[in-house]
Amino acid sequence: MTRSVVILNGPNLNLLGKRQPDIYGTDTLADVEMACAKVAAEVGLACRLVQSNHEGQIIDWIHEAREKDAGIIINPGAFTHTSIAILDALNTFEGPVLEVHISNVHKREAFRHHSYVSLRAEGVIAGFGVEGYALAMRRMGTLLG
Ligand code: DQA
Fold first, then answer.
1. What is the whole-number distance in angstroms between the Cα of residue 1 and the centre of ligand 1?
2. SS3 of residue 91 by DSSP
3. What is the pLDDT of residues 87-134, one digit of tens each?
4. Which terminal residue of the chain, N or C, has fewer Cβ atoms less than 10 Å from its own Cβ?
5. In what order do the strands lie in the sheet with 4-9?
6. How many domains would you assign to the chain?
7. What is the pLDDT of residues 19-62, one digit of tens each?
8. What domain range is 55 assigned to?
9. CA of 124 to the centre of ligand 1 (A)
10. CATH number of the domain bearing residue 71
């Protein structure tokens, strides 16, 4: 059976393409899903993309991934900088975790420089725009290969 990777997106990312396009660009999450699916197919993986504005929903999806998925790509949005609960959930997952930020968080406000999720992630991509998701998927192909 083809192994799958879930691409989890946190708050405000439903507005990707419309939200602060100077920072996040004009591509939508549907565009991200298509780009990731293409790379996933190339490296022999399946993927699905989900988004929620609610911390508890993201935690529930991480728990589901324990049963369903071989890897997690996560852009936790602002929960990156606040959520010990998401970190704890990711610590219950056994496969690789890759963290993606569309913007270069290190070039922005100091409160975006710290990530709880980075304490768990095998790798972090920041500042590559939405291309970062597809790059993370390619890396999943290596990590799960
Ligand atoms: C973000 C960066 C976060 O600081 C911010 O809160 C987001 C998006 C990014 O993809 O660049 O919502 O994770």
1. 34
2. coil
3. 999 999 999 999 999 999 999 999 999 999 999 999 999 999 999 999
4. N
5. 46-51, 4-9, 71-75, 97-101, 123-126
6. 1
7. 999 999 999 999 999 999 999 999 999 999 999 999 999 999 99
8. 3-144
9. 13
10. 3.40.50.9100
